[in-house]
Amino acid sequence: MKSHLPIRPELRDWILTTTRAGHSVDEVLRLMHETGYDPRQSRSIVATVLNMPVSALDAHTQAPKVQQGRRTRHPEPPRMTIDGRSFNVSTCIERPIVRVLDDFLSADECDVLIEQAKPRLQRAKTVDSGGKQQIDARRTSEGMFFGIGESPLIKRIEARIATMLSIPVDHGEGLQVLHYLPGQQYEPHYDWFDPEQPGFAAITAKGGQRIASLVMYLNTPDSGGGTAFPEVGLTVTALRGSAVYFAYDTGDTSSLHAGLPVTKGEKWIATKWLREWPFQVSPQG
Ligand SMILES: O=C(O)CCC(=O)C(=O)O
Ligand SMILES: [Fe+2]
Description:
This is 2-oxoglutarate-dependent dioxygenase. By secondary structure, the protein is α+β, with helices and mostly antiparallel strands.
């Protein structure tokens, strides 16, 4: 049912500008609700302004509804200091949301992470359409996962990430360390899980959808190995201690990214993926 009430021109303009700026219909409805609009009335107003039936509005609001969990706060330039460690937020992109962090980890933290990961490396896997881990030719590196809070160093890094992004430690998947040799890469992909995939329900049953990623570089490859965002033509240089943060909603195709092939030397990274709901049963610390 469409609204037969007169719609104030300012409200009409606001709905149009907000949706054109990329905000979801769901978000528009939430904001209207917050300002005191009756939900049924606001649905009918939004449908009228966007010239669509209210039933079509439902299709727009269904996807966001399943991912109403927490969101990360994006690192703020120019500089952040957390627990005595200062680092620059040296590059910011808004679409996709990307932040480059210089010296997020100390050289010593990088070295220790590599040493602790080395004996536990295995061929890195991806998640198949049934939700199972699989060996994948698109991802040829070796990797391992640390448990949440498994050592004082891991705890310290997880606490730094949680404070920086204003999200509890238990929203994080275990820190993954990856090792790439010359020729190895991680082909373009999204970190969010595709709701169309049959395995989606299983992968998101715990923790819900992924909402952000932090890729930390543990060494500087001699050549190659940057992280590319092809939709914006950006390649972040892999530099020991620096990191790239990116955040996304489900379906955000601008967040496409790739670990470019290492052409000389090797590459070590640690990745932290964040979920919209708590992912850990009982995080330590
Ligand atoms: O290797 C990289 O630079 C990117 C890694 C990545 O995309 C991931 O771990 O999800
Ligand atoms: Fe990724």
